[in-house]
Write a structure and sequence with these properties.
233 residues, alpha/beta, TIM Barrel, 11 helices
């Protein structure tokens, strides 16, 4: 999709609207407090939706963002979600106690591949209960699933009353427009869709939004908002 084809996305979106789609992400192995602080400063400056960090960084991010309009999103279960639902629920509750207000949890991908849908129903139910009032996003890791498996996981997410279905961790392949459309068509209007992984250009971002994404997980948030202002400002 060309830049010209995406001009229509801007028609109902100002810079503030675009910024509020971005989960400003730092999920690198070599985490430093300086990087987390930078992430938080940038998110607060641009009014991004959230910062997305690993559990170890949640207390610092919560402290840095107190009094701002930026949420603290914790990434759990990375990157294939291969452990019991009870542990995921405990991890979710613990992260919220430490200051997380949104939770991105990787579902048990192996269970989906094995057709163990009852296990995923239990996992999603416990996740919803553990998240409470926090925003609950379940990560499908779409690059590893068939379209039928993606739809089934989305249907279970709707049944569990989660808030979002999310495409990817970004550790393998990232979001694609067809996957975002498939997920949106399956869960809308009950749930929202988060596209994540490989979103590095403004055209990437606008294509995902046009396909139905309400959130974008990306480490390129500053570059994206600058590009948006340059093109549409």
């Amino acid at each position: 999709m060309s830049s010209g084809d995406l001009e229509g996305v801007k028609m109902t979106m100002q810079a503030g609207d675009f910024a509020s789609t971005i989960d400003h992400t730092y999920l690198k192995i070599h985490r430093s407090d300086a990087e987390v602080k930078r992430l938080c400063f940038e998110a607060a400056k641009h009014h991004f939706a959230s910062v997305a960090v690993f559990p170890v960084a949640v207390p610092l991010a919560a402290s840095m963002l107190k009094g701002t309009d930026v949420e603290v999103c914790v990434a759990l279960g990375f990157h294939l979600g291969a452990y019991p639902p009870e542990l995921k629920a405990f991890e979710t509750e613990d992260a919220i106690k430490r200051g997380a207000t949104e939770v991105d949890l990787v579902m048990n991908v192996a269970a989906a591949k094995a057709g163990q849908w009852d296990l995923l129903k239990e996992e999603f139910r416990l996740f919803r209960d553990a998240a409470g009032d926090a925003i609950a996003k379940i990560i499908l890791e779409t690059c590893l699933l068939t379209d039928d498996e993606k739809r089934k996981a989305c249907e279970i997410a709707v049944e569990a009353r989660l808030d979002y279905v999310k495409t990817s961790t970004g550790y393998k392949d990232g979001a694609t427009v067809p996957d975002v459309k498939l997920m949106y068509d399956t869960v809308s209007p009950d749930l929202k869709v988060k596209a994540s992984g490989g979103i590095r250009t403004l055209d990437d971002a606008l294509a995902m939004i046009d396909a139905g994404a309400s959130r974008l997980g990306t480490s390129a948030g500053v570059a994206l908002i600058e590009a948006f202002n340059e093109r549409f400002g």
